[in-house]
Amino acid sequence: MKRHNNAFIINGKEVAARIRDELKAVVSVMKSDTGRAPGLAVVLVGENQASKVYVRNKARACEEVGIRSFQHSLPENVGQSELLALISELNASDDVHGILVQLPLPGHIDDALILEAISPAKDVDGFHPCNMGRLAIGSPLLSPCTPLGVMKLLDSIGMDISGKEAVIVGRSNIVGKPVALMLLKRNATVSICHSKTTDLQGKVLAADIVIAAIGRERYIKGEWIKDGAIVIDVGINRAKDGTLTGDVDFEGASKHASYITPVPGGVGPMTIAMLLSNTVDAARRLVKK
Ligand code: NDP
Questions:
Q1: What is the atom index within ligand 1 of the atom nearest the CA of 197?
Q2: What would the mean pLDDT of 129-153 be, rounded to a whole number?
Q3: What pairs with residue 165 in β-bridges?
């Protein structure tokens, strides 16, 4: 494992590649056992360039591990009822085991209504209230991908999470809240911080595990990190010079942390790997031998 200053660097690209290899083997067994491959339907509405790139990357990643991918591209002005009709068709399809609606959706469409229309059993983004609720009661079915990726990175260093002080900065439904629930299930003592938190520095300084999911470039300073802490940086920010940076000052934090994730190359690669993993999990439950 490479080191920078005091910290070992958790290489998300390598961990994600290992997970993809494992999934490839599982998919191959599933195909020979059932004659069926897992299938992921990705729904893209409109011409958002970033969304198009994400969708293309997801399709390529599926192909690599043997998952069938079905892309449904709809025009920007598609009606909500037309989109709902497509989702209900995908819910009923035997070839589709995972459904992902690429966000953001155009303003005339109610995101929540669309996400709730996806069958919870095929909700590979894990955003359906039923899946969020299951996570909250400690009985998850399909959980959000980025938080799952964070947990895999902690597991990749053999971290015993039980009893540790975990501080999460950010309380979004897609990262902060679900990762808090996952850490709680693993018996960490969890604090969730946000923009109204007082003495953020003091709270981060007390943490054995720091998860940064803020969306503000290098907001968490090196001197906020307790010696020996583990730092997972979920943030992806585009700096003025065009480079990608995290929410943590990597240089400063790596002088105190025992392990740290880089940006890029940390949490980022894990998100798609966990989407593939969720699709394979969903297919294993849905496909009968
Ligand atoms: P949101 O904007 O939805 O949430 C940001 C959170 O940070 C909010 O809870 C907000 O608090 C909190 N926050 C903002 N400013 C401060 C502050 N000064 N002090 C403390 N807390 C603050 O972001 P997301 O959760 O969607 O994403 C967070 C980051 O993670 C972004 O950089 C995003 O690009 C990245 N990301 C990366 C992914 C990956 O694959 N690696 C996937 C998803 C996101 P409040 O609730 O009070 O407003």
A1: 20
A2: 98
A3: 189
Nearest CA to ligand 1 atom 8: 170
With the C-alpha atoms ordered 69, 75, 81, 82, is the resulting torsion angle positive or negative?
negative
Beta bridge partners of 238: 244
| Gap from CA of 24 to ligand 1 centroid (Å) | 32
Residue-range domains of the chain with CATH: 35-119 (3.40.50.10860), 144-268 (3.40.50.720)
Do residues 220 and 193 make contact, with C-beta atoms less than 8 angstroms apart? no
Amino acid present at 283: A
Q: Verify whether residue 208 is a known catalytic residue.
A: no
pTM to 2 decimal places = 0.97
For residue 242, is it left (φ>0), alpha (ψ between -120 and 50) or beta? left
Active site residue 102: yes
Mean pLDDT of 99-121: 97
In this predicted structure, what is the pLDDT of residue 284? 96
Asked if pLDDT for residue 210 goes beyond 80, the answer is: yes
Instruction: Pick the residue whose CA is nearest to atom 34 on ligand 1.
Output: 236
Confidence check: pLDDT of 49 > 90: yes
Rounded distance from Cα 186 to ligand 1 centre (Å): 23
